[in-house]
């Protein structure tokens, strides 16, 4: 099945617009595409007529040009007929927003859609979903544009069984400056499922990281999922929801009672290098980190801070996540000391965490980081920046990022996300260094790199 | 790839829904998995003969299609030292429901582990390794991987256990024979892959490990339930 026109449409039909109710989902979708996206859009309603001065088509066949994507928001019973007309007109694919299928017990209706789509090799997303959000290109979310928090275009693709979780995730991405390549709410995932999208996204040039919110797999689908992940080179992050379900005879078998659904899921993901996020907070940190770096680390962290307390806090969080903060030997410490400004040399602490104190300036941070890169025992640098210090300028983000470019050791930064530090933060982020608004988040970004490989 | 003898064991167990221990052990032995020397005997004289051949002390376990959990009904006797003790055990076991003889078995010692498999709905065959053997629920120290296992998977499973030190040697105790455990796990994984459609779960619990060898001291195989 070819997803190209489905995800890169130049023309979209929105089926089910209301001529009387502006808040109908189809109208919301039509309006935003019509007014804000660089695609041709055609409203469809069997009654025809005019909507905001534009012609409403009575059906897909009536649309004069070719249609790449049909967004369908009509009653469940009518979806089948519309789907047939899409197939007939050689539409490139559909997003079926409508509910009232398997989730309300109408598996039969849903199966009919799947059968005819499969036979015609016609891809559709849903039903019972928000569909596709492609930043800057188009979206099928029935949420008014002014209400949505819109992340920047970027490298992370999100696939979610839940539309609500997806929208919430987009808010967090926007807050943390994580860019989005594509977001897909797959709803009942009747035809196109996680596995299909992973295979598509593996080849999508805009996507560097694939993240998924999964509630459950079908029989043996988990096995096919990890096998697919193994065969692609992009990192995959999964957030699993849903409590474990136990077999009825679990009590008779030690293994079955110890190997509940969720434990199996979690450990099999780890076995295959899928990074499992335990919650939304981890999801955002992992996505940000893995959109900047792909090379796994062992997790030997060198910490640079301007505050002793932050260094200790970060060390504690590292320990809790199984990351080490190895002591730096005396010779390396001396080498770093000599590279610092003279007035700092007697007041800094260098064994790791490196505490440059509140008197440090940009040059000292750069010198300490350059020294730390050369310590063989360290494979990742965590920079805790408190921009309240007078010696830290807005240029430090970009300077630090340049220093680490071409190095095989990743840099993660913590900077409080306040508007007045925006230029410092962007100095990192626009140069491909991830920045977290919390110490925990920065440590999680390092942990993502430790976990993104088979173990 | 299953040999006919193994297939036959599954076939005969269908009525009870699980494979009784002597047959489960025979199946393991056929798959190359070390088990203690054992003999399934139906009479007291047969039991005494088997024990004398094996040499005391021996273990004895009741064999009955109605008793899945032997320990809970007192159906396991360990460290039997002589004929008199064995006779006594035999007559006690023989009154148990569904009695079909007893298993006379060589006593084995060692650090207790559990090695198990289940057919997971989402991931198919998965393998479990845990510390504690029969006390595994108390320790809750287990590792799970999707089968088939490679050597790297097995090493990662060892390493992920909190009680890994018990395997690798701890405060002067010698390390277990990890290469024997590795071999046992790889053979077990191959068996599980081959018979995935015939089983619901397998418990080798405990597996007893020493610096010399690793042996499956108990084996329980549950077959898939007919209804869905």
Task: Please give a handful of descriptors for the protein shown.
heterodimer; A: 455 residues; Rossmann fold; five-stranded parallel β-sheet; 16 helices; 38% helix; B: 228 residues; alpha+beta; D-amino Acid Aminotransferase, Chain A, domain 1; Dna Ligase, domain 1; 2 domains; seven-stranded antiparallel β-sheet
Task: Detail the topology: elements first, then pairings.
The complex is a heterodimer of chains A (455) and B (228).
Chain A: H1 4-7, E1 11-15, H2 25-36, E2 40-44, E3 50-51, E4 54-55, E5 69-72, H3 76-88, E6 94-96, H4 107-120, E7 124-125, E8 131-134, E9 138-139, E10 153-160, H5 163-176, E11 180-185, H6 194-203, E12 209-214, H7 221-230, E13 236-240, H8 254-258, H9 261-271, E14 275-277, H10 280-292, E15 301-305, H11 308-320, H12 330-339, E16 354-355, H13 362-373, E17 380-384, H14 396-404, E18 411-414, H15 422-429, E19 435-436, H16 439-451
Parallel strand pairs in A: 1-2, 1-5, 5-6, 6-7, 10-11, 10-12, 12-13, 13-14, 15-16, 15-17, 17-18, 18-19
Antiparallel strand pairs in A: 3-4, 8-9, 8-11
Helix pairs in contact in A: 3-4, 5-10, 6-7, 10-16, 11-16, 12-13, 13-14, 14-15
Chain B: H1 4-13, E1 18-19, H2 21-30, E2 38-41, H3 44-54, E3 58-62, E4 76-80, H4 83-93, E5 102-106, E6 111-120, E7 124-131, H5 136-139, E8 142-146, H6 151-160, H7 164-168, H8 178-194, E9 201-209, E10 214-216, E11 220-222
Antiparallel strand pairs in B: 1-11, 2-5, 3-4, 3-5, 6-7, 6-9, 7-8, 9-10, 9-11
Helix pairs in contact in B: 3-4
